[in-house]
Amino acid sequence: KEAKLWGGRFESSVTDIVEKFSESVSYDKKLYKQDINGSKAHASMLVQQGLITAEDGDAILNGLAEIGRSIESGKFIWRADREDVHMNIEAALTDLIGEPAKKLHTARSRNDQVCTDVRLWCRDAIDQILGCINRLQVALFNLAIQNKGLIIPGYTHLQRAQPLLLQHLLLAYVEQLERDSGRLVDCKARLNFSPLGACALAGTGLPIDRFATSRSLGFTAPLRNSVDAVSDRDFLLEFLSANSIIAIHLSRLGEEWVLWASEEFGFLIPSDAVSTGSSIMPQKKNPDPMELVRGKSARVIGDLSTLLVLCKGLPQAYNRDLQEDKEPLFDSVETIVAMLEVTAEFAQNVTFNLERISRSLPAGHLDATTMADYLVNKGIPFRTSHDIVGKAVALSLSKGCQLSELSLDQLRQLHPVFEDDVYSFLGVANSIKKFCSYGSTGSNCVAEQISFWRDKLKLS
Ligand code: ARG
Fold first, then answer.
1. Ligand 1 atom 7: residue of nearest CA
2. What is the Å distance from ligand 1's center to 217 Cα?
3. Could you give the residue numbers annotated as active site?
4. Where is the Fumarate lyase N-terminal domain (predicted)?
5. Is there a cis peptide before residue 317, judged by omega within 30 degrees of 0?
6. Pocket lining: 323 vs ligand 1, CB cutoff 6 Å
7. Which of 48, 121, 256, 284 has the fewest CB within 10 Å, making it most exposed?
8. Exposed, middle or buried by CB within 10 Å (0-12, 13-18, 19+), for 176?
């Protein structure tokens, strides 16, 4: 067995069971690029500070570049007995260039190294997710454009409430996704500080320059406190919280579209390209991708809760428990990216069943609140108007008709203020024309939103 990089004080090697249990290279090798870049920055700083010679520095930089190429070409052999990505790369560097490699870990610990790698990895992951969010926003926006003027029933409590323009509802999701992006942007700015040089926990007595490594890795500044730098994973909690909120937004959209694709609603027709069948029921066409989006949100939330529980009992500073942060992080990112991609794909592959939607509009007195507004315009206090319209609804329910089908005489028996102009407030098409408050579903307000998003999403 090869001696461990930390093996000096040990007389015997760890058992196979312990080795297998403790290794992380099987998954943290994902960090190889960040690990190599971090090491390059660190080595260059060591040269600058006179802690190692320029020749040693060059040997290290060239060696690291070579290892990077060998990893990328798939030739690199990852060894579980070398524990993690950091020691695999350092040991391979020693195999490759010999003595100079032994100077790379000067004034560095895996504790600051791992957390530097993870912060660098998160930066890229966040950029990737931001791109996916943007593409989904564009897909939802385009779906809205294709369905200009389409009125749908709006729901509260899943009971019919008021009419909505479909565009308005779709843009609600676009808004939510925009805040999701904002949370990630904030998170990225807050995590972009360098732990490198915090070493194990206390910093070092060697004359390093943490500002130099921070700068060369594109961090805003070095973290101020070395204990904080190696011990906290709040930036991951924040990142996974942001992902969880995205997951919840997507899950709600998934739920809505699954419902709309049902026979009972029949509003939405997913194309065959995004539907799957049943192995026993020949007639079936299921909206599986959106069900899985709903389902996978559980994983993303689970990843966050794993991390919350992981961190809650840890004393300062670094604890090996923290190695367990990586799988939930990777899983959360991989899952949220896939969820965003498939949702965009789904949005590009649905049509709305105009016939079913328009046939469904008369049900549920969607115009009742507009009728109450009519009475308010006539000077009736809103509470009284509410009561009068409630009675009109009861009357139309008893007659099996719509509010617009009640005669003026029938309405006047409820209140003498009713005049012929009430009919221009009734019926879904009339009702929706009355909305004019900022942010409402009125067509001018929605047109303003459309033009806002056209600019914001840079769609000409
Ligand atoms: N693989 C470890 C992790 O992910 C790296 C840091 C290990 N540090 C240590 N002192 N054992 O956290």
1. 110
2. 21
3. 157, 278
4. 8-302
5. yes
6. yes
7. 284
8. middle
| Token pair recorded at residue 375 | 């009475």
- pLDDT per position as a tens digit, 295-350: 999 999 999 999 999 999 999 999 999 999 999 999 999 999 999 999 999 999 99
> With a 6 A CB cut-off, is 84 part of the ligand 1 pocket?
yes
pLDDT tens, position by position, 346-384 = 999 999 999 999 999 999 999 999 999 999 999 999 999
Q: Which atom of ligand 1 is nearest the CA belonging to 24?
A: 1
Is ligand 1 within 6 A of the CB of residue 114?
yes
Residue of minimum CA distance from atom 4 in ligand 1? 323
Instruction: Give the Cα separation of 96 and 105 in Å (integer).
Output: 16
Contact 320 CB / ligand 1 (< 6 Å): yes
Mind listing the pLDDT tens digit for each residue in 104-114?
999 999 999 99
Cα-trace Rg, the chain: 31
1 alpha carbon – ligand 1 mean position (Å): 21
ipTM of the complex model: 0.97
Query: Counting every residue, how long is the chain?
Result: 460
Helix, strand and coil percent figures for the chain, each rounded to 5: 65, 5, 30
